[in-house]
Amino acid sequence: MTIDWAHFTPWASLSGGIVLGVASALFILINGRILGISGILGGLLPPKLGDTSWRIAFLLGLFAAPTVFHAVVPAEYIIAPRIEAAEWMVVVAGLLVGIGTRYASGCTSGHGVCGLSRLSPRSLVATASFMSAGFMTVYVVRHLI
Amino acid sequence: MILQNHIYRVTEFAVGLMFGVGLMASGMTDPGKVIGFLDLFGAWDPSLALVMGGAVVVGFFAFTLAKKRTSTFLGGVLRFPTNTQMDKPLVIGSLMFGAGWGLGGFCPGPALVSMADGQPKAMLFVAAMLIGMLGFELMDRFVHAPRKAKLNAA
Known about the structure:
By secondary structure, chain A is mainly α. Chain A has helices at residues 10-31, 37-42, 53-72, 87-103, 108-117, 121-144, and one strand at residues 2-3. In chain A, helix 5 crosses helix 6 (121-144). The two termini of chain A are 19 Å apart. The interface between A and B is large, with 110 and 117 residues.
């Protein structure tokens, strides 16, 4: 293993992570809900009467983030995303993520951040599973084929 | 009651906004960075361990406090997950999710934020993800649930 120092961003990532933690903290302590993106989004497919407005309010906030981020952070500090995957891979990835997160009742936010924070054994199993599948997939895609 | 609902809509929006900004600041919206973290056997970018670490340390204090309380700061219900079963869906679903995460470099939150940021591949990813989510929902409702009901009736 070699460390990719050129792309390592300890301070940005740590402070971004703290912001994610504070958002999850506010959501449980004020709204009484687990901040899990796949659950919030998936609960709208299909929408259920009386259980949509909070999901939509949250998602609108999420969608407003890039506008606010670009307005606040000077352009020279913003790193353009690198998307190597070909279109067909992006589609396969999206299908897997959609089915998988609903089947497992959670993704990186619900199981990863909130689940580990509340020491849930279920979420620990989920996080260990999706991380190892992620490591294996990248190994296969980058080093085997 | 109506005033209370307005407060909730505002906090939901604000928390969503904050979460999205956190994702962008941390580097989670850059699939190259996600795959760099998942690439243990290449040039490894440890950044995302710090994202997770920072989030979980803050979250740990919040959830420890939340578990001791009987209601939210606004007096509302604390909705904690109730399922504690280690079952097949949890593991198989997570493995599928992890494979997709490694393949595209997107998980649901960053994909939605990147879509809103105008990234064409993120739009494609979100479209496929929504089809996957809806497909799962329909399968669950029309295939799994009737089969389970039939098994229980037998």
